[in-house]
Design a protein that fits this description.
Order of helices and strands: EHEHEHEEHEH
Strand content: 15-25%
Distance between the termini: 21 Å
CATH topology: Alpha/beta knot
Shape: globular
Low-confidence stretches: none
Mean pLDDT: 91
Number of helices: 5
Number of strands: 6
Strand order of the largest sheet: 3-2-1-5-4-6
Amino acid sequence: MRLALYEPDIPPNVGTLIRLGACLGVALDIIEPCGFPWDDRDLKRAAMDYGALGEVERHSSWESFATSRPEGARIVLLTTKAALPFTGFRFRPSDILLLGRESAGVPAHVHEAADAQVTIPMRPPARSLNIALAAAMVLSEALRQTNGFPAGK
């Protein structure tokens, strides 16, 4: 299981997701360009000392990320435009959960490249959640389904 962020805008979200991945043993792919310098103070503050524990792979572009995808790994896009709730999706251990930019989501060609698209059901007029919260919710369900939580305390 992996998380992937498409051109993230907000350093604290990335830091939070680095920490989430480090705690749960889930690698994080960053698809650049980012909307901030990688050495941003807010990124480091949110990641805390988990930055060294997390597995983070940076990709220079969407194309670089797409060509490095492990064989058999599905890209599961979390999007407000999907009809299928994440709770009704059958996850696999090799899935890559992809989240778009906080300000704009992902472009059409990324939507089309995704193997599946899922959404988080919410009541109107709410439109979306913070990407770190959305990632945590969907990743938790994916790890539950695949028995992928680490054997910790």
